[in-house]
Amino acid sequence: MNIISHPQTVSASPHLEIKTGAEALLKAAEQVTSLLEHGKAVTAGDLRQIVTANFGGSDAEGLWLWKDAYEATEIAQVLFLRKFHAIVSCHHSPQSTLAMLTKAVRLLPTHSRRSEESQALQQFSTPIPLAFVASRAAGITSADLVLEPSAGTGLLAQLFPRVCRNFGIDPTMVIAPDQAWASLVGGSSIIGLAGGMTLRRVRVMNGYRVELTGFTDGMRDWLRSIGLFPEMINWKLRFFVPVTDQGPEILSKLMQRHRLIDIVRRS
User: Fold this and answer.
1) Rounded to 5°, angle at Cα 128 from 123 and 132
2) What does the alpha-carbon distance between residue 80 and residue 107 come to, in Å, rounded to a whole number?
């Protein structure tokens, strides 16, 4: 992934009504994430505009603190890692992974405005690159139970999606069916569902299809009822999700009964 910094204009719509501060914070984080995805640097001025727009007023009006703004950037980093978890996959060397993470973090403003309380308590969030180095040095595996002593944003856990559940975090919970469907159709991911089933893009005859494997004989009628179609190929019954506009809806029905438990980046 190449991240190229260039200036941009961030639109602000003051006095936008948001029900809760948490919702405003998340909305702001999503906007920051969008800028990161496009490789755009987020200045302190950009951040002020984004947070002001979502909180419905400025910090001068007392509607938010710079601590809130910085938290929005940290949430954005979590969302960024969840969406682009392949950055820290085993297919990249530790050196290239560290370089990519460092490049992404440098697009964000530094925490230059700190309260007296945070300075007195030495409250500093762990930067993503440092979290990655610490995780590598610790040699964390899926067999380990990791206790995180700090109350942070969970960046350390996000660096290793396969062992996140040992931190009490399941990153697959935030993956929507349409996002999962896009990764399947694009051939970038293999999706694991509860019950030992797997979804992946396969080539059949002269085209690509999304195939479900691992289903039991007793599931055949139900799979047909939610929209999958069977086909006998080489004397074996196989089930496919139609690569149409109905794909995300069918996948959603599958995930309601058999939750998504893993997403593996295809090499």
Assistant:
1) 115
2) 12
Give the per-residue pLDDT at 192.
83
Q: How far is CA 255 from CA 11, 116, 235, in A?
A: 37, 47, 28
Q: Is 214 helix (H, G, I), strand (E, B) or coil?
A: coil
The pLDDT value recorded for residue 11 is 43
Q: Domain coordinates of the chain in residue numbers? A: 21-170, 175-265
Using CB atoms within 10 A of its CB, is residue 123 exposed (0-12), middle (13-18) or buried (19+)?
A: middle
Residue 206 phi/psi, 5-degree rounding, is -110, 15
Yes or no: say if 5 and 40 are a contact pair by the CB < 8 Å rule. yes
Q: Which two tokens stand for residue 57?
A: 């007023």
* CB 13, CB 53: distance < 8 Å: yes
Which structure tokens are listed for 182?
């896009």
Determine if the pTM surpasses 0.70: no
Q: Are 165 and 227 in contact (CB under 8 A)?
A: no
